[in-house]
Design brief:
globular; about 325 residues; 15 helices; binds farnesyl diphosphate; Farnesyl Diphosphate Synthase; binds magnesium ion; about 0% strand
Length: about 325
Amino acid sequence: MNKIDEIKQPIIADLLAYEKELALALQTENPILNQLSNYVLSTRGKQMRPILSLLVAQVCGGITESTIQGTIAIELLHIASLIHDDVLDSALERRNKPSVNAVFENKIAVLGGDYLLSKALFKASNSRNLDIIFEISKVGSNLADGEILQLANSKKQFITEDIYFDIISKKTASLFSSCARIGALSANATNHEIDCLGIYGTSIGICFQLRDDIFDYFSDDVGKPTGNDLREGKLTLPMLFALSKATNSEKEYLFSLLRKADLTEKEVQELQQFSIQKGGVEYATKKMYEYRDKAIRQLQYFATSATKNALMEYATYVIERNK
Ligand code: FPP
Ligand code: MG
C-alpha cells in the first residue's frame, strides 16, 4: 500500500461518503455547469485537504454530518480558487490535464468558479455551525489577500523573508489551517484542541508550499514545467536566500535574467544552479523540516491512536511526496 493510502485508512469509509455527497452537491439542471463540475471532479488531485479535515475530526472524537458538510465547503472553495487562479495566470494546464479555462474558456471558467464558491457557502451553512461559516469566510478573504499581495510583490523585485512567509501563510497555509480547524470544530473539540490543530494545519500548509517551491528547482513531474516560478520572475525562498548571499554584481546579473520576458532553458538552469550553490534550496529544506516538527509537536496533547499516527505520517508525507 502506498503512503497516502495508508494515511487514509482510518477515515476511508467517511472519505467515500464525502465524495458521494460532493458529487451530489454539484448537480444542476444547467448542462454547462454540470459539464464543468464533472470535469473538475474527474481531474482532482490527492485529496490532501479533505483527508486532513476528516482525520482531525476523527482524532477529536468522531466525524459528524457537520464534518462532511464543512469538508465539502472548504474543498469547493479550494477548487474555485484554483479555477480563478488559472484564469489569472493564463495557465493552460493543471495536474497534466487541460485547465478549466483551456476547456471552457475564461468567461465560463470565472462563472464556474463563482458557482462553486457559492455552493461552498451553501455547504458551510448546511454544517449548522457558525464557527465553520466563519472559517470559510476567513479563508476566502485570506486567499484573495495572499494572491493580491503576491501580485503586488511580483514585479521581480527582492522581497524579504517575512513578506514571503506572509504570502504563503495567506495563499496556502490558511486553507490547511481552516481544514484542520473545521475538522476540530465539527467534532466539538475543546478550544485548546482547536488551537493546536489550527497551528498544525498552518505549519503543514507552509511545508506544502515550501515543498512546491523547491520542486521548481528539480522535478519535471509535478504537473507543471520545472523552472516555472523563475520564468514568471516569481521569487520564492530558495532564490530569496541565494540573493541575500549574492554580491552586488551577482545580484545585478540575476535580476537582469529574472526580468527577461522569455528565459531560455539555459538561463533557467543558470538561475537554478545559482540558487542551489548559494544554499537556497538547502535553507528552504531546513525551514520545511522545522515546520514539519512544529506540526508534529501540536499532536502531543492527543492520545495515541491509529488516527493520530496517520496525522503524524501526513506531516512527513507533505514534505517527502514526489509530486
Ligand atoms: C495557486 O497558486 C492558487 C492559490 C494558492 C490561491 C488562488 C486564490 C485566488 C485566485 C483568489 C480567489 C479566491 C476565491 C475564494 C475564489 P500558484 O499559482 O502559486 O500555484 P499553482 O502552480 O498551483 O497555480
Ligand atoms: Mg497558478
